[in-house]
Amino acid sequence: MPYLIAYDIEDDKRRLKVADRLLQAGFLRLQKSVFAGDPGEAAYKQLLGWLKKMIPGKPGNADALLILSCTQNQLDTALILGKPPEEWTEFLDPPNTLNI
């Protein structure tokens, strides 16, 4: 199942670790803190466990991470306004449709 992940992480080192881990899991960086990808069920479960350790829900922790699961219909109806970055082209078919 495809996922859209967005985060707001204050600590530079932690933010870099999360971004690197998402890229290693095969996610595509859509914006600086927004990623999309379909790593497969086993890899997703492993990634989710790791993310829960990196972004603890403790008092005083201002970091946040949002994970949205996407259906194919949601991907098919996604609209991109403006010119998408070059690295998106392999996922855009036809234009303005995001295929993950």
What is the straight-line distance between the termini? Answer: 9 Å
Q: Total number of β-strand segments? A: 4
- The CATH architecture of the domain at 3-71 comes to 2-Layer Sandwich
Secondary-structure element series: EHEEHEH
Shape: globular
User: So how many helices?
Assistant: 3
Uncertain segments are: none
Helix/strand class: alpha+beta
Strand count, sense and barrel status of the largest sheet are:
4 strands, antiparallel
Strand arrangement within the widest β-sheet reads 2-3-1-4
What would you say about this model in short?
The protein is α+β, with helices and mostly antiparallel strands and 100 residues long. The chain has helices at residues 12-24, 41-54, 72-76; strands spanning 3-8, 28-31, 34-37, 64-69.
Explain the overall architecture:
Helices cover 32% and strands 20% of the residues. It has 100 residues and is an alpha+beta fold. It has a domain at 3-71: Alpha-Beta Plaits, CATH 3.30.70.240. It has helices at 12-24, 41-54, 72-76; strands spanning 3-8, 28-31, 34-37, 64-69. It contains three helices and four strands; from the N terminus they run E-H-E-E-H-E-H.
What is the secondary structure topology, with strand pairs?
Blueprint: E1 3-8, H1 12-24, E2 28-31, E3 34-37, H2 41-54, E4 64-69, H3 72-76
Antiparallel strand pairs: 1-3, 1-4, 2-3
